[in-house]
């Protein structure tokens, strides 16, 4: 501390001179600027994954919809870091390929795969028990990632299609979380990750059922976070809200200004999500610029927001959507 004394004295002298010259307003400007710079450097560190990270070695990570896209990508990344991986999916063939790929690269019993339709509570219960029995460990990190999109406007969609989207993208989160949360709370350890979407904050033409389901997922995450806060639990929650990712799920969707609002790459999005989990981030909007849309929506009249979304081409982004076939 003694070594720092001269620096403290210099800082005090600087502030005294500054105050004499600029008065209270000047001090307020300096305080605001310092706060701004501190906040900016924190955001940069967070965005690049430079904050303090927790270890996932030997943690049991359970990923729904892990047979393809970002689910598969995250499973491989976590396996590389020494975690025990469980992936579940309705696509058994693709699921088995991912399990084999991980076990071949990172050790024989690193990954386990089980068939699971997340919209069916019984299927969820059985799959979770199978995974716990296989790894002989309760689930430490649950990633609710399985999702579907119809890409149909409301009148062109079917009752079955609409129900399927809501059941898989929102209701299923209740089934998985109800299976694991009690043990997490009792152990005061665990993490529930909700893979939502920017469609959980802003509505898009052609995505009525999808946005409804993702607004639900965002609300699910936020309410769960408050339930955990109320009991001072150390169980963490993370809600991920990405723009389009090039996994194939949203094939054909377009960004009018790709430089400003790029379609995210699967690798980038997966690494960002893994970092967010490591850093116990509560909510991630990506790319970061989309926070502006949320701010405009919260502050300005609806007509300003609506015009902005149309100007940036967000509302027409689904006009050439092809996607993957939704099996009804
Ligand atoms: N791709 C994007 O542009 C994008 C953007 C924002 C959010 N997301 C979200 O990210 C998540 C992953 O998307 P992705 O791009 O990797 O898509 P993806 O289609 O590659 O992966 C989704 C996986 O979920 C599985 N699945 C579907 N229904 C299921 C069910 N009933 N039970 C279990 N598994 C089921 C599929 O078989 C598939 O393996 C989804 O929740 C999606 O809504 C994707």
Give short descriptive properties of this protein.
binds nicotinamide-adenine-dinucleotide; 7 strands; globular; alpha/beta; 328 residues; 11% strand; Rossmann fold; seven-stranded parallel β-sheet
Structure summarized in a few sentences:
The chain is of the alpha/beta class. The chain is built from nine helices and seven strands. InterPro entries: SDR_fam.
What does the model show?
- Its main location: membrane.
- The protein is α/β, with parallel strands linked by helices.
- It has 2 domains: about 1-45; about 55-310, NAD(P)-binding Rossmann-like Domain (Rossmann fold).
- Helix content is about 50%, strand content about 10%.
- The protein has 9 helices and 7 strands, in the order αβαβαβαβαβαβαβαα.
- The protein has helices at about 5-45, 70-80, 90-105, 120-135, 160-185, 210-230, 265-280, 290-300, 300-310; strands at about 60-65, 85-90, 110-115, 140-145, 190-195, 235-240, 285.
- The protein has a 7-stranded parallel sheet, sandwiched between helices.
- β6 (about 235-240), α7 (about 265-280) and β7 (about 285) form a beta-alpha-beta unit.
- α2 packs across α7 (about 265-280) and α5 (about 160-185) runs parallel beside α6 (about 210-230).
- The protein is globular, with a radius of gyration of 23 Å.
- It binds nicotinamide-adenine-dinucleotide.
- Nicotinamide-adenine-dinucleotide (NAD) binds near residues 89, 145, 148, 244 and 248.
């Amino acid at each position: 501390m003694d070594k720092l004394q001269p620096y403290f004295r210099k800082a005090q002298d600087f502030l005294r001179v500054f105050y004499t010259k600029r008065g209270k307003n000047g001090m307020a400007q300096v305080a605001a600027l310092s706060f701004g710079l501190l906040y900016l450097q924190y955001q940069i560190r967070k965005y690049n994954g430079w904050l303090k990270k927790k270890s996932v070695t030997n943690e049991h990570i359970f990923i729904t919809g892990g047979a393809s896209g970002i689910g598969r990508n995250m499973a491989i990344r976590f396996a590389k870091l020494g975690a025990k991986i469980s992936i579940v999916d309705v696509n058994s063939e693709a699921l088995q390929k991912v399990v084999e790929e991980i076990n071949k690269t990172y050790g024989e019993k690193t990954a386990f795969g089980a068939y699971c339709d997340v919209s069916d509570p019984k299927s969820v219960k059985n799959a979770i028990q199978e995974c716990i029995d296989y790894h002989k460990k309760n689930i430490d990190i649950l990633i609710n990632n399985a999702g579907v999109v119809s890409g149909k406007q409301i009148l062109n969609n079917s009752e079955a299609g609409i129900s399927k989207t809501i059941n898989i993208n929102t209701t299923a989160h209740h089934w998985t979380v109800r299976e694991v949360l009690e043990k997490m709370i009792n152990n005061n350890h665990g993490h529930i990750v909700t893979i939502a979407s920017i469609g959980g904050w802003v509505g898009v033409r052609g995505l009525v059922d999808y946005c409804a389901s993702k607004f639900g997922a965002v609300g699910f995450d936020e309410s769960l976070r408050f339930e955990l806060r109320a009991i001072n639990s150390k169980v963490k929650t993370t809600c991920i809200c990405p723009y389009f990712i090039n996994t194939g799920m949203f094939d054909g969707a377009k960004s009018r200004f790709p430089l400003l609002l790029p379609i995210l790459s699967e690798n980038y999005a997966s690494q960002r999500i893994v970092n967010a989990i490591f850093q116990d981030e509560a909510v991630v909007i990506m790319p970061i610029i989309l926070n502006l849309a949320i701010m405009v929506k919260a502050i300005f009249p609806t007509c300003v927001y609506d015009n902005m979304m149309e100007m940036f081409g967000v509302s027409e982004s689904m006009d050439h959507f092809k996607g993957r076939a939704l099996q009804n």
